[in-house]
Every structure is written in C-alpha cells, then in structure tokens.
Amino acid sequence: FLGRYIPESPRFLSNAGLDNEARAVLARFAGEGGAAAANRDAPPIIVAEPEPPPGGIMQLLRGSHARITWGLMVCGIAWGLVNFGFLLWLPTNLGSMGMDATAASALLARSALLALPGIAVVIWLYHRWSSIKALVLFIALTTATLLVFFGLGLAQVQSTLAMVLTTALLLVSSSGVIAMLIPYAAEIYPVHLRGTGSGVIAASSKFGGILGAGFGVLGVFGHFTASALLIAVPMAIAALMLVRSGIETRGRGLEDIQDLLDAGRGTPS
Questions:
Q1: Whose CA is closest to 87, among 109, 120, 117?
Q2: Is the domain of 255 the same as that of 122?
Q3: Among residues 35, 130, 155, 177, which is most buried (max CB within 10 A)?
Q4: 238 in any annotated domain
Q5: Model confidence over 173-183: pLDDT tens digits?
Q6: 259: number of CA atoms within 13 Å, CB side?
Q7: Cα–Cα distance for residue pair 12/35, rounded to 1 Å
Q8: φ, ψ for residue 182 (rounded to 5)?
C-alpha cells in the first residue's frame, strides 16, 4: 500500500536506464534550483531511454550468478523444511518422547519469547559485521541446532529445559536466516535481475514449505531424530556453497558487487 508513495532512488532509476525519471526525482527532492545547479554546465539534451537488458530465471541459473543462486535456493528450501515441517511437528514429536502434552504445546510460545532478543543480534551482525558471514553463521547455527535435536532424540532426553533452550536457539537461527536471505538476494543481483532473483529465492523457501507438508503426509516428520538429520544435510550444503560463492555486500556499491560476481570471486578472506 505504501509502496506507491515511496519513490525509487535516482541511482536505481539511472541504473535501470530511466534517466528522465531520475532527474524528476532529483528535482522533486532537491528543488528546481538544485536540479538546475546540477545541470548548469550541461547542454539540454533529450535522453533516449534504452531498453533494459532482458532478465529471466535462466540468467540466474547460468553464468556468473549461478553458484550463488543455487546456494541461496538450497538454503531457502532447507529453511522451508525447518519452518513448515520440523517446527510444525515438534510439539507432537516431543509428546511422543514422553513430554507432557501441555508442556509440549506451550514450548514453542515460550521459546519464541526467548528468541525475540536474538533478532536484534541478527540486525547488528548483518549491518555492522558482514552480510554474507552473518548469513552463513546463522545457517551453520541452524544446522548445529538440528544436530543437537538429533542427539537429544537419540539419547531420549526428556528435559523440558533442554528442549526449550534448543527450540529457542532453532527459532533464533532460522528466523535470522530468513531475515537475511531475502535482503541479501536483493543486494547481489543487478537491476534487471533483482526482482526475478529475489522472487526466486523467496519462492524457494515456500517450495521448502510445500515439501515439508508433503513429507508430513508421508510421515517423515514422525521420525524425530531422522527428520532432524535429514534437514541438517541441505542446510550444511547451503552453508558450504555460500562460503565458496558468497559475495560481501556491506559497504560495497552495485558495480563493485557485480565486478566480484563476474570475476567469480567468493567472500574475501
């Protein structure tokens, strides 16, 4: 609803080839005097707006964007399995392990409250430390938490405290992953691929949810330990893929990010 009242930045419009619109935004916010001062020495010209280069899914899956796109897609699918599969079935599985039904039902609510402060940490790390390193860190943390659940299931641990803390950690880590995944996708793609790229990554998380529902029907999540291990595998794969192909976006302009992608470079050491 509010999007129609928020103009695009002049830089975004210029990169998209919409130079007349970029000048209009500058004139609107800098005033006619500011726009005139910026163009004082420039002769009046009529700008021919070129057609932006075509963007499509195949461009994302091939060429310089392929590795990072696949890494983000695997991460999105794994996150969907966690959020719409493992967590959804967690109270039922805890009940089957002997935990009181009331305690199992209230577990997610208590864990969610404990997880809220963790979101502030996610925001700080992404903006102040490193975008790609923060994303990989929380993917790895999600993987480790699933492996903790795997260990708790194998040992038949019925401690409410252990389950609450582990669930809170999973909520913090998985919420951090999705909170960074879509913004990161919007930062790494050029203008003509940005909408398609961020849309594909967002769709991958929903596809993971569809897979989660299908696995639930097949009874996969009825096996607590096996399902935790099963989802930890693609999470770990996504972390490894992004370690190899991820690009640091913090403090970098669009052109610098694209130069790194075109050069096939991953995260700087």
A1: 109
A2: yes
A3: 177
A4: yes
A5: 998 999 999 98
A6: 5
A7: 17
A8: -70, -45
